[in-house]
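User: I'm putting together notes for a lab meeting next week and I want to include a structural view of one of the chains we've been expressing. I don't have a solved structure, so I'd like a prediction I can at least talk through. The sequence is below, exactly as it appears in our construct file.
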Amino acid sequence: MNYLGLTMFLLLSLCYRAQAVESVKNQFAAIPVLQVVYPQPVSKGDVRFEVYVAVLRAALEATKHDFGAYQLKPASSAMSEARFMKELALQRSGLNVAWSGATYVDIASLHAVKVPIVKGLLSYRFLLVHKAQLTRFAKVVDLKGLRGETTAHAHGWGDSLVFDNAGLDYLESSYEGIFDLLQQGRVDYLSRGATEVLDELVARDASTPDLRIAPNLMLFYPWPYYFYVHRESRELEQRLMTGMQRIQKSGEHGKLIRRYFAEELLMLTVTGRTVLRLDNPWLEANWKDAYSEYWYVPEGLQLDDALGSASVQP
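Assistant: Thanks for the context. Below is the predicted structure for the 314-residue chain, given as structure tokens.
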């Protein structure tokens, strides 16, 4: 082959290669990127959602090979839990995934991905009290004693139904407002999940400096937090279920929980607390068997065998 022929061959080869590369690019460009829109926090001091987003991202990453690319982004405006669950059910506000407790599982338009996002840690409830009331709360040893006190819930919290069922009184306010109510002495305590309480105290150290964790008392009620999707989002539901099962099996789920909540997990192993148990009648009867693979049980915490043979490690 002469020099001119070789040059023409190389040029043609480069052209064909460029066309092939462009063809592949076009094929990938034609594959839609899944937009996953989740609730944004209600305030700057609200860091509760960070771990939910981290677990959501891990589940999506674990299924990227099967289901394709995705883009995660928060909703355009902040909403209360009751509001964003309603928006999801009505397919409004661009939301296509949200998170909440088991009280929404009976909503026909919503499907729950039944792998607890934080391994049941929201079931373990520390009590925040005003420092002036620590001595008084040290005398509370049963639910009868707690029924003489009033707590506060944000509007629309699902576990308000658990408190109704137990005969415990509460006021409703905004999420930020419940801490102000306790600081001002207008309520007696707040029930905060193990994944929430420390971050909430740190974030509000300046605005509510007199809040303390009652050292002698805890509540327990089974409160798995799930991802929810609209019933028509079948592929997203399948993807999240597959992803959650994969990160559980690989150990990544547990690593995330330990990374976010190392101190909280240690707090749960401290002995000497009285644990008051509330029933959650909105959970299916076989919940212990259904979630034992995913549930965290603090070592040494006495729960009257409430969790049977559930997993000990997060």
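A couple of points you could mention at the meeting. The longest strand covers residues 211-220. Residues 304-313 have pLDDT under 50 and may be disordered.

User: Perfect, that's what I needed.
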